Amino acid sequence: MKKIICTWDLTEAQKQRLEDSCPEAEITYLSDREVTAEILKNYEILVGNVAPAIVAEAKHLEWIQLNSAGAAQYCKPGILADTTMLTNGTGAYGMPLAEHMLGGLLALKKKLIPYYENQKQHLWRDEGAVSGIWNSTTLVLGTGNTGSEFAKRMQALGSRVIGLRRTLKEMPEGFDEQHQMDQLEALLPKADIVALCLPGTDATKHVITEKHLALMKDSAILLNVGRGNLVDCAALNTALRRGMIAGAFLDVTDPEPLPQDDPLWDAPGALITPHIAGGNHMKEIYETLVDITCENMRRYFAGEDLKNQVNRSVGY
Length: 316
What we know:
By secondary structure, the protein is α/β, with parallel strands linked by helices.
């Protein structure tokens, strides 16, 4: 009998769904902090994100199902055995992250933050002109689940949406155009909104630098829900303070947590949330993760290819 360890905080109904998907297995539920290398050596399957250093000692693992979409930390040499299958949570986070980006974008465009500050002071004051989404151009870096979900929402609100991706494939729903990443500098000056939905890899580190920020419109807004190091945050702080762009909504920063004395906290036009757009902040996330895992359990025990297999050479 295969033994599975699951570190997710599931409801009883979700646990029952998971168990029903693999009746030929035994599942143990522990938190990720409770899992040690000594415990893990007794299991063939891991469902959850356990520290890579612990996973590295479990070369016998046959399969790891992550709850995250990002998998780069598990793809480094020496972490997994060549025979260990690795699948991620792609598909669970697109909707929550897209809604989070849209909320931050509207807060910046409609000056909701200054109005909220006025409300706390009981101050009835007009904050002047605002901008909208209708008839804008949105540039989305990363056309996977999150990028596509955001694109669909922006398109529905009247924006022309351009996608950038590593390799060209069939254009996902929500996009009006798609190009390869080498067109970034040519497209940045056209964009009113720039959304970063890329995974964190060596190839995507500082995809937005001082040079790229200088190419953007001074009315443009930058959104980042990918990884903090997609952006040179020091350069972003300077760009905001110099009025080179109008605003930035960040759910991720570099470093994380953002130090209390980091000047980016107080940069004009900056709106920052502490990496909470995904996680388990919406019940729909774990429902989808359980859907993905139950299907993969069925496939695993049937000897079929698993969904969401990670390409270890690129980290996602």
